[in-house]
User: Which sequence fits this backbone?
């Protein structure tokens, strides 16, 4: 995926601002919203243009070109699918320059028949996301002149799958009730997959889980006193500033970060340092009404009635934003089927083994609410983000947990 550093910084900055408003379990995609804001900024005027440009993080006259670059980059990335859609009433005439900046196949028509339009928009949303999002978030009314939408989906399989096991954390909110979580476990010798960073709001632990495509997921656990917004913001900041992160192979003995323990154990044979990871599987869905916090997305003025409208660069017909929504979903699983058997034989020992070797072990447990970021590995573009409060439960009587 080829996207300029300026665009990546701008999208990640919007991710950080959105993260700053997070209070509970959620999932969202600033990368899915950003192109829409950029195209609107290109066609806006006055205060609406200034606010949208500020939200986009680029001058308004450069926003549309950057949006086209981002969409093209996402479309070329392995494991990522993106699309842009535009629907207008037949009577709405668009500015030729603005329409020409959109993908040629993007433009559809609103018939004015609510049921038919709803079915068409829902079909587009479902088809462009592989059924993950089944409905278009916005409602089309008789007053709707234009719908501008984007779809973003990503799928990856872990380079090394996790093993599934029932897990009951000993402390924290997930220890209450005695219900087992669907735990995911993995071990390896690459200690730098985990790291601890000292941020302005407290220490966080970051675990990078690599996918077979260039899409990875970063799990971020903060100190217990940190808020979801603080942990998510810390995770976003680490995408561009890795200098604050101390990798696992340089962590001191003890508990240097949230959920991390570094210890030396006695072993019968020499072995390389080992990282043990345990996290719950999780699924998250969320619907966002962006007009509840329009200032975050540069939509405060764009949503206010004004004679002549705010988007003369889009159409001579006066337009104002009356609805802005996002539906998002995220799923984190073992990603694959594995079968294993352990055969054990008991024998009477002739003596105790001599434990002459010291082996370094790093344990990383995500046993309480944490953040996640889906990140394009090479550009460090945040594609989706969220906060996990309700992990998946272990289905004891079911053979298939998918």
Assistant:
């Amino acid at each position: 995926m080829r996207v300029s550093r300026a665009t990546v910084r701008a999208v990640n900055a919007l991710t950080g601002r959105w993260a700053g408003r997070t209070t509970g379990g959620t999932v969202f995609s600033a990368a899915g919203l950003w192109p829409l804001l950029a195209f609107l900024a290109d066609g806006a005027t006055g205060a609406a243009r200034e606010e949208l440009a500020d939200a986009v993080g680029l001058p308004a006259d450069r926003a549309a070109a950057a949006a086209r670059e981002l969409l093209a980059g996402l479309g070329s990335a392995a494991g990522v699918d993106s699309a842009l859609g535009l629907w207008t009433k037949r009577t709405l005439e668009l500015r030729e320059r603005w329409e020409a900046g959109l993908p040629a196949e993007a433009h559809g028509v609103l018939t004015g028949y609510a049921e038919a339009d709803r079915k068409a928009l829902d079909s587009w949303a479902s088809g462009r996301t592989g059924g993950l999002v089944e409905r278009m978030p916005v409602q089309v009314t008789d007053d709707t002149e234009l719908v501008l939408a984007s779809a973003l989906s990503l799928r990856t399989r872990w380079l090394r799958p996790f093993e599934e096991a029932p897990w009951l954390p000993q402390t924290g909110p997930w220890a209450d009730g005695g219900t087992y979580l669907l735990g995911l476990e993995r071990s390896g010798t690459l200690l730098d997959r985990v790291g601890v960073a000292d941020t302005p709001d407290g220490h966080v632990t970051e675990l990078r889980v690599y996918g077979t495509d260039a899409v990875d997921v970063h799990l971020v656990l903060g100190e217990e006193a940190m808020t979801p917004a603080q942990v998510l913001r810390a995770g976003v900041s680490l995408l561009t500033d890795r200098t604050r992160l101390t990798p696992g192979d340089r962590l001191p003995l003890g508990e240097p970060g949230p959920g991390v323990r570094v210890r030396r154990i006695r072993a019968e044979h020499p072995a390389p340092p080992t990282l043990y990871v345990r996290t719950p599987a999780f699924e998250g869905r969320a619907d966002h009404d962006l007009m509840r916090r329009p200032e975050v997305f540069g939509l405060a003025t764009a949503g206010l009635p004004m004679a002549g409208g705010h988007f003369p660069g889009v159409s001579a017909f006066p337009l104002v934003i009356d609805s802005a929504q996002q539906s998002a979903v995220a799923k984190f699983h073992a990603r694959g089927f594995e079968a294993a058997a352990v055969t054990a034989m008991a024998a009477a020992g002739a003596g105790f083994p001599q434990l002459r070797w010291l082996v370094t072990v790093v344990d990383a447990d995500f046993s309480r609410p944490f953040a996640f970021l889906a990140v394009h590995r090479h550009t460090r573009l945040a594609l989706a983000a969220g906060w996990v409060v309700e992990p998946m439960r272990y289905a004891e009587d079911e053979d298939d947990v998918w």
